[in-house]
Amino acid sequence: MDGRRHTRAGRTGVAVGIMGLTVGLGAGASGCSGSGVAAEGVSGAGGEPVAVLRQAADTLRAAGGARAATSMEMATGGTRVTIRGEGVYDFGRRVGRLTVVLPADPTGTPEHRPITELLAPGALFMKNRGAGVPADKWVRVETATVADGNLVTGGATDPYAAAEVLRGTRTAVLVGRTTVGGTSVRHYRGTADLASAARAASADNRGPLAAAAKGFATAEVPFDAYLDDEGRVRKLRQSFSFVNGPEAAAVAVASTTLLHGFGTRVEVELPRPADIYAGRIAEGEGVPAD
Q1: Among residues 112, 114, 222, 286, which one has the fewest Cβ atoms lying within 10 Å of its Cβ?
Q2: Structure pTM?
């Protein structure tokens, strides 16, 4: 793959890299930052919020496999478009598989087949990518080469990368208790800094998160995180902001990750080199050239 072309596709993230939609939007990321720091003197996920959230990725690694559901929302032309994904993820090995479903095209274009995505340290593999990629081939994206660090490029945020963003938590408050999927959780709200997250991240995510810190319109990531009593993330909603073109305004993307079924066995077989598409990505289109 041509690294520079991947980077251009990554800068427009969902808008071009996956959906093939043109976005002309002048909206920044919505704010949900916390002010001050609260504390809760109980066991489990209780305690000083910033410290608890910074440890969330380590807690997930110890939890092993889980089932995951993702959604990514982006406003375009006054319409909110949502991409949904579902699959499994192994936090210990940092590999996963998602089936990503694109929204129906209001222009009447035939519906795109679901995209199969394989997540691995440093790489994203996509099948049924469309736009000229043979049906039996995978597209490989080196996550450190895309400007968003694969936080939005695939239409789904890598669950472990999402948790590692919390390592950069700057402010957080405990909103209170609620339930997610029938599980009692603590709801935290705050902001994280991508540059700080990159410095504290695992070796595999250090490069991608550093790229995101430079490539997004702002390195500040507002979030709402819901942790169970063992400190495991059950729901995580994050707001990212990127620029869709050299003269365009910032575009806001809201990514949500839901996790359940901890202990699930995850089997992911990565593509062989012969199964990976070797074509170029067309400049400005994020799709392979003819």
Answers
A1: 114
A2: 0.81
